[in-house]
Amino acid sequence: MNNLSAKIIDLAIQIQQIPAPTFSEGARAEFVRGLFVNENLQDVSIDSIGNVFARMPGKHKKAKTLIVSAHLDTVFPNSINLQVTRREEAGKIVAPGIGDNSLGVAALFGILWSLRERNVELPHDVWFVANVGEEGLGDLCGMRAVVERFDKDVIGYLVLEGLALGNVYHRAIGVRRYRITANTAGGHSWSDYGQPSAVHELAALVTQLTALRLPHEPRTTMNVGTFDGGTGINVLASEAKCELDLRSEDPATLSKLIYQVEELFRNADRDGVKMLAEIIGQRPAGEIPAEHPLVKLALNCMHEQGLSSILTSGSTDANIPLSRNIPAVVMGITTGGGAHTTHEYIDLEPVEKGMDAVVRFVERAGEEQ
């Protein structure tokens, strides 16, 4: 591992040590803003929802700009233990959020340091963006604001994900999310037995939902991620809630699934039972073809480093530009595992090549205008 990679990893750990659950990224955003200022970048700012921006000017004022982004937020609450464990003999660092996405944010600076180390001046501006709201119920609110700011007059977007090395995302999976609430009168489990319980009613609905047949091609998924309700073991629950996640690679297939799911919602009401379904997240689908110059560039940059890569789809910040026909790709920095768990880890050895690939992409992206 070279000195630049070691510096990037050290910064990733500093970032990881600052809690940043979705909707509470402020402290991490301020840290990144301070780093942008210290690097003497231009137009450093934080917008009204917490996205951090900085511009590295290019040689030609009229050239389109490249947006390079990485999300600040993590899936972990403020209370999580952020202990870092270095397993040098295994070439790993274990820490919650280290790969998703502390390393991605650190890579913004790694790109800058690499270009400056070699005295590379690009023809185009590069806007570095550390954005909020990518995880969970953030619903990509940060990237929505970024795309609103820059609109379509850009070279495109390079979205950095710490653990995605080996994958080039150019297709965005559509997502629809619901919070489903069941309400009943409730009562005593013995004296009111036979009256509806919100927990039982919601559980019955979930059973109906998960019995729906989903196609393997195009890949389509359903998940009930949370379920809670009731106040005691001997109480007929008056309220119960769950959160439902629907995804598909194909917008038409997702629309069909949404229709089937909402039909079950509509039929779930009966005497003494009210079922409310609230949309809490929508991630639009989109894609650019595999033949697009930015996709080819991403693959070439990986190949030049001796890295194998595959084209794939996912639900990332790239959903927003892709859904608006703005070119975007997602590239990773290293490999690892355990994402979204407390034993998340990154592999150290691939960082150098992963960084070289994204730096080369940033250098050459202007040639693809």
Structure write-up:
By secondary structure, this protein is an alpha+beta fold. 32% of the residues lie in helices and 28% in strands. It has nine helices and 19 strands. The strands form five sheets. Strands 1-2-6-3-7-17 form a six-stranded mixed beta sheet, with helices on both faces. A four-stranded antiparallel beta sheet has the order 4-5-19-18, with no helix packed on it. The radius of gyration is 23 Å and the shape is elongated.
Task: List the SSEs and their pairings.
Elements: H1 3-16, H2 26-38, E1 42-46, E2 52-56, E3 65-71, E4 85-87, E5 92-94, H3 98-117, E6 126-131, H4 141-150, E7 154-161, E8 167-172, E9 174-183, E10 187-188, H5 198-210, E11 220-229, E12 235-236, E13 239-248, H6 251-267, E14 274-283, E15 286-287, H7 293-304, E16 310-314, H8 319-323, E17 328-332, E18 336-337, E19 345-347, H9 351-364
Parallel strand pairs: 3-6, 3-7, 7-17, 8-16
Antiparallel strand pairs: 1-2, 2-6, 4-5, 5-19, 8-15, 9-13, 9-14, 10-12, 11-13, 18-19
Helix pairs in contact: 1-3, 3-9, 7-9
